[in-house]
Amino acid sequence: MTTLDKIDIRILDSLTEQGRISISELSAAIGLSQTPTVNRIRKLEETGVIKGYQAHLSEALLGGAISVFIWVSLVDQKSKTLFAFEKIMEQSPEVMDCYLMTGDADYLLRVAVNGLEEFERFLTERLAGLSEVTRIRSSVALRPVVQKRRPPELSRQVQADPLKQRNR
Known about the structure:
Number of strands: 4
Oligomer: single chain
Largest sheet: 4 strands, antiparallel
């Protein structure tokens, strides 16, 4: 785990909450001038703590109104089988998240579809027909309850920062 000081934590917290914050606003929020703020951001990017910047899009407004979680078991766990399955999932526009798992299933997928008909098409035309797949279980999400973007350790450090608590 990377060692961060309180200023790094404030920078990350601010960028997590508002990725488009200007350098002048960010500098004022953390109590540094602009040049050291930019230098710290650059260092966080270079070390890989900041992996990139992106917009959070509305799946519901862009054709993914329903999230379905799918547990997939494969015929075996050989590298060739895993690689083939993962390649197909990468190329499937409905697949928003795909995790290699331990336990009862080999993979956990989250797919975003516009309705149950679209999910049925994905299930029958893409997933169930794969020779690598032996078992499929799925559950439709009713609504998100918690969706965090801040890693747990950063959350703990932000909560422990008394200055951050006063500014909220």
